[in-house]
Amino acid sequence: MKALKLLPLLGLLFLLASCSTVRVAADYDQSVNFDQYKTYAFYKPGIDKAEVSDLDKKRILRAIETEMNAKGFTKSKNPAVLVSIFTKAKERVDVYQNNFGFAGGWGWGGGWGWGAPGFWGGPWGGWGAGFNNNVVSRSTEGTLYIDLIDTNKNQLIWQGQGTAPLVSGDVARREARIQEIVKEIMMVYPPNVASN
Fold it and tell me: Which residues are in coiled coils (predicted)?
């Protein structure tokens, strides 16, 4: 019986754990030698078009700068790559079903007993229990794209994408969430390819 009481709690913990994950994908030009890129700058026209608040843009750019520096890049006025971003947001609706129940019956059927026919007979009762509990969760899910553009060729060479539920309200949580998303995206750069 204690296990049954823990089911809703375990469901809630699973829901909270699944909200903290960032789904990451990347695409890149296979003909590029990524070892050649060591300097970067932000691509202002692309960043200006990103549909996110100016405060969040600053948070994203700071997080990207931290990750680029950690990968050995330096910011330059004559960069090898330009870094651009764009964002998308959508409402996500998840329905979690928690169906628990049992059904059964008990009683005595008709028939011959010690007394008159049908003495033990007749339905004496029945029982059944159960519940169907659906939990609907609504959240805003955002996708951040980070593009790296070769400045000499003026071509996109790498794009990382991270999708995750967004947090609002608490500024510290928001900052931490943006840092987490950017870090997860940048973990897949450079792509795992042999240098040309």
Answer: none
pTM given for the model: 0.68
Fill in the amino acid letter for 72. Answer: G
- Whose tokens are 């004496």? That residue is 124
Helix 54-70, helix 171-186: angle, nearest 10:
40
3-state secondary structure of 171: helix
What are the phi and psi torsion angles at 160 (to 5°)? -110, 145
What tokens appear for 118 in the block?
């049908």
Provide φ and ψ at 103, rounded to 5°: -140, 150
Hey, what domains does the chain have and what are their CATH numbers? 22-94+133-188 (3.30.160.670)
Contact between 142 and 20 (Cβ < 8 Å):
no
Token code pair at residue 92: 């996500």
For residue 195, which of 4, 17, 31, 18 has the smallest C-alpha distance?
31
